Amino acid sequence: MEDTLLIDAAERFARGEMSAEEKIFFEELRKQNPELDQLVVEQLFFLNELERYGNTKNFKHILQETEAKLVQEGMISRSPLQGDSKVVYLWKRYKRTIAVAASIAGIVSLSIVGISALLHREKNDNLKILVGQLKEKDREIKQIKNQTDKLAAAIENNAPTAPRPRVDAKFRATGFLIDVSNNFIVTNAHVVNEARHQLIVENNRGEQFTAEAIYTNPEADLAILKVKDNTFKKMSPIPYSIRKSNADLGEQVFMLGFPKQEIVYGEGYVSAKNGYQMDTTYFQLSTSANEGNSGSPVINRNGELLGIITSMETNAEGVVFAIKSSNIYKAMDEVKKMKGYEDIRITSQPSLKGSDRVSQIKKVEDYVFMVKGN
Prior knowledge:
42% of the residues lie in helices and 21% in strands. The chain is an alpha+beta fold.
């Protein structure tokens, strides 16, 4: 059994099948034990001769196939008078060399068997120690492999982890996803300004993820957040498109946001193409909104995102202002100038057009997040 293990180790070394750690350990053993080193040298020679023998047999097979093909195509002929073709002649000419190589391979094989028998007879104490070390190292490697396999399986199967403590926030707002590749979420700049220590986004299932603001524009009251949490699962393409042109007067729209701890639906229509005091960055909606609706997406019946809720008119009931969606594209152009974000783009696969409102809401709500901060 010990002889078999030694030969197996020598063969694995010769074939390059040992790990880097095993190879270093085995090289050190070779330096300390001349018998083992000689065994490795002979094993290398044996494997090389076997490979040469195999290559020769393969070459012979190719020659035979080539001859048959040439005969079939009429390029050469084979007859009793003519004897063998030139292709077969080549094989016969060099077959003695091949036979010698095969004999050497057989002699080497017998030598290895003889050495193994000699080792067994002598029962060299040093070799016993060597075998023991090899067995111990083999056990250690198997244990490490088993632990690694278990860890990989746990990760692959989403093994449950300890629940993360929930973050208590001093305010609540809304944001929505615009890029599933980079986990970009749009919200208001004034929302980000309220978070002095930490930003958290929470989905409609109550799962929380850490985020950071990578872009803010106070004038347009627009901010782009990036979810930094590695527990955030990659989502499928966004079901709504983001419109580049302005909203039309009278367009029917709906909103999803977090004025309370659960997602809330609202609807209304575009009542003015510009915002307060004719500010062209915004447009006006006739709808109701509450604290927490800041950052809510404004979507028309065709599934086009037209804007982002930003503020209410304090002197008029039912008047809400929204940032025009074209500003999202301007913000993304600014982000592309940052190092590491040169190739980003808005990722969407519009699928809301033609669906009824309930179906549209079900598709959109997974992409709308509560934004919290403290």
